[in-house]
Amino acid sequence: MRVAVCQLNARDDRAANLRVARELLDRAAAGGADLAVLPEYTDHLGRASTAPKPEGIDGEFATFFADAARDLGIWVHAGSFHETGPDADHTYNTSLVFDRSGTLAATYRKIHLYDVEIPGRVSYQESATVAPGSTLEIVAVEQALVGLSICYDLRFPELYRRLAVDGATVLVVPAAFMLHTGRDHWEPLLRARAIENQCYVLAAGQIGNHDPDRTCFGRSMVVDPWGTVVAQAPDVVGVTFADLDFDRLAEIRATVPSLANRRL
Question: Where do runs of H (alpha helix) occur along the chain?
């Protein structure tokens, strides 16, 4: 199974962001990808004053990526977008997955919200405008069972363990990981989630500067169940490919049967 992680620099211009996202999906399909993964907030990552109006899972965002999946004949993980939330003050941070026919196959709403105060470095309260999801999601994609997550979820290993126990063989992490944490934590966290759950991890990140005063780390990558980084994006917008070997996954789980040996 061939996968592609798509790295982009979404800004205030939604139309331009979607145009680049489609170009990356075109490249993913041309490279033989069965599944392409886009980053968190694919359509807009910028000032709140320029954010698109939240919409449902059958709105323009969904239609755009459903059409792309159908046109290209590949599975598309559309990163995430601002879905209409439970009240007027909150949206959901939501991932949509489309099958080769463009049918919506899975919806996941980010569970863990990034509420962080680091004096002099970052002040961000995601929960002020985003409501948390509450449901884990696994979707069958070709021969893989794909567990869904978004960005800050990566710091909560219990989420991924539950996905693995429920059968996931691939874990997906669309993200907009901040530069100051990403350079030290991004790769170690991704490798840890792969090793402890004996799953492939597909991580697609935003890269570069985003108004106001935000810089994302990038370094989109694919990690195998042994914890080896088998593919990593350079520090530019682009597409990175990897081939997932499920015989290797089964061999790793048999050689070091940590999932089978767990007692909690």
Answer: 14-30, 60-72, 157-165, 179-197, 246-255, 258-261
Would you call 28 exposed, middle or buried from its count of C-beta atoms within 10 A (0-12, 13-18, 19+)?
Answer: buried
DSSP 3-state assignment of 76?
Answer: strand
For 192-214, write each residue's pLDDT tens digit. Answer: 999 999 999 999 999 999 988 88
The 10s digit of each residue's pLDDT in 26-76 is 999 999 999 999 999 999 999 888 999 999 999 999 999 999 999 999 999
Residues forming the active site: 40, 110, 151
Domain count, the chain: 1
* Cα atoms in the Cβ-side hemisphere of radius 13 Å centred on 206: 28
Domain limits at 241?
2-261
Which structure tokens are listed for 88?
């007027």
**Are residues 65 and 43 in contact, defined by beta-carbon separation less than 8 angstroms?**
no
Which of these, 164, 199, 203, lies nearest to 186 by C-alpha position? 203
How many residues can be counted in the chain?
Answer: 264
Nearest in space to 6 (alpha carbons), one of 260, 224, 231, 167:
231
The CATH number linked to 76 is 3.60.110.10
Q: What is the DSSP pairing of strand 115-118 with strand 122-125?
A: antiparallel
208 Cβ neighbours under 8 A, 6+ residues apart: 9, 215, 216, 218, 237
Distance of CA 46 to the CA centre of its chain: 18
